[in-house]
Each structure stands twice: as structure tokens, then as C-alpha cells.
Design brief:
This protein is of the alpha+beta class. It has one domain. Strands 1, 2, 3, 6, 9 and 10 form a six-stranded mixed sheet that branches. A hairpin with a 4-residue loop joins β11 and β12. The longest helix is centred in the first third of the chain and has 19 residues. The N and C termini lie far apart (119 Å).
């Protein structure tokens, strides 16, 4: 069963707290207090959390969806993003942390992460976002209620080469962005599986066969993440161009002969 466990207290009993509020207590005061409580809980929860769930794969994806046979999917990579909302006149989103894990033989996963407290602004946590990758599979889109267990289903990929390698490149760039350096922050990796994850992405891209030059930027991203050296640039081809002299003048046409 999925759960989102946090390292600090995240339950607030308003009725109990209300006993100690002075009278009269305005709705504006209540709003300020509620905002402070939310900010406190958000900062507390941002220090660490874990997400548990299970991944299945479909054995007969050619059959109608209602007749699918699902089995636990072992060795699938699971990436979790913890995000939040920053309220204000122009509300924005912030990525708090991203971490990676792997499913066991029963398809179960437990991805945990710890990170530094956010800067001094109010952050309202959202439900963690979970994405799953396994070579040759696509994640099936599923609707899930926030309180429901985290369950993901994988089906055999039928994407064209262009779309599949773009998807692999997107997986490789998963993580939170450092807005000062504009680079992706490395994934939290308490299970030590990130290196194998990036290598699996690169190897699947290689198995797709020769790629058109228009997709080389995706392959370059996958090489970089997998630690594979980029191929050397083709050598410059030097062609000697000999100087040419002035073109000879065209011959002057002969004058017509005088008639007798």
C-alpha cells in the first residue's frame, strides 16, 4: 500500500487549537494563523519523505484493456518528484526534490528522499509525481485519487523511433532545475541505481538502430548522462583551390569583306 511518510508532525487539530485563541478572533487572524501553520508544515515536510507503491506490466497488451493480464514488474526504475505551490498574486510551482529507486521482484518500490529546507517563503506541498521507466515499455496513463495507493502499469512500447528517443531523453533529464545554474540537480539515489538507469536509457537508444541526424541532440543527452564519451567530430576536409588568372579576351569577329 502506498504511503507518504514525513519526518515531522503533519496533523493539526483546529478544534483543539481554537480553545486557546483570544476573543474576539477575526477571520483575518484565522487566515494568517492558518498560513503560518501551512508554511510550518511545508517546511517541516520538505526535509524528507518517502513514497511507496507497486508497478505491474501487461503480458498481453494486444488484447482489449478489459482482458489485460498484469503481473508484478521487477527491475523497473521509479522517479519521484516532490513539488509544491508558492501562493501569491502570480502563483508558481517549485520542485523540492527528485529521487530514483527500483522495484523488487514483487514490483514494489519505496523511494525516499531528504533535502535541505526551502528558502524563506510559503510552500504548499503537492502530491508527489511518480514516473516509471523500464526498457521497451511505456507507462500507461491512469487516473488515481490522491488518497489511493500508487500503482503504475507498463505496456510494451509501440512508439515510432523519433518519439521513443525523445521520450528516453526526457527520462534522462528528470529532476529539479537549479534556477541559478540552469542545470538539472542530480537525482537522490539512496539505492545506488541511477548509473544503471542512465546506462539502460542509452542502451535502448542504441538498440533503435541508426538515427537520422535530426535526432543527434537526443543521443548526445543520453551519452552525457550515461557517461559515454561523445564521438569525435569528423575531421575537416581541406581542398586546395588554385588561383586562376584572368580569362582570355574573346576573339574580335572579323570585319565583313568588301564586295566588288
Amino acid at each position: 500500500m502506498a504511503s507518504a511518510k514525513r519526518t515531522c508532525l503533519t496533523r493539526w487539530r483546529w478544534g483543539r487549537a481554537n480553545r486557546y485563541l483570544p476573543e474576539p478572533f477575526s477571520s483575518w487572524d484565522a487566515l494568517i494563523l492558518a498560513g503560518g501553520i501551512i508554511g510550518l508544515l511545508a517546511a517541516c515536510a520538505s526535509h524528507g519523505a518517502s513514497v511507496e507503491g507497486q508497478v505491474f506490466e501487461v503480458m498481453n497488451s494486444e488484447a482489449p484493456v478489459g482482458q489485460w493480464t498484469r503481473v508484478p514488474s521487477a527491475d523497473a526504475y521509479v522517479i519521484v518528484h516532490w513539488t509544491g505551490s508558492v501562493p501569491g498574486p502570480h502563483a508558481s510551482s517549485v520542485c523540492l526534490h527528485a529521487a530514483i529507486g527500483k522495484t523488487d521482484e514483487r514490483g514494489r518500490f519505496d523511494v525516499s528522499g531528504r533535502w535541505a529546507a526551502p528558502k524563506a517563503y510559503l510552500v504548499i506541498p503537492r502530491d508527489p509525481a511518480v514516473m516509471v521507466y523500464k526498457p521497451g515499455f511505456d507507462q500507461q496513463s491512469e487516473f488515481r485519487k490522491p488518497s489511493a495507493p500508487v500503482v503504475r502499469t507498463l505496456v510494451r512500447s509501440k512508439l515510432p523511433v523519433e518519439q521513443r528517443i525523445a521520450q528516453l531523453s526526457t527520462y534522462a533529464e528528470a529532476g529539479c532545475m537549479d534556477h541559478e545554474t540552469f542545470k538539472t540537480i542530480p537525482l537522490g539515489d539512496t539505492q545506488g541505481v541511477a548509473a544503471r538507469f542512465y546506462r539502460a536509457l542509452y542502451e535502448e537508444a542504441q538498440a533503435l538502430g541508426p538515427l537520422p541526424p535530426s535526432l543527434n541532440h537526443h543521443l548526445a543527452t543520453l551519452r552525457d548522462k550515461a557517461g559515454v564519451p561523445q564521438p569525435p567530430a569528423p575531421p575537416w576536409q581541406v581542398r586546395t583551390i588554385r588561383p586562376q588568372g584572368p580569362s582570355p579576351a574573346a576573339p574580335v569577329p572579323a570585319a565583313p569583306a568588301d564586295r566588288p
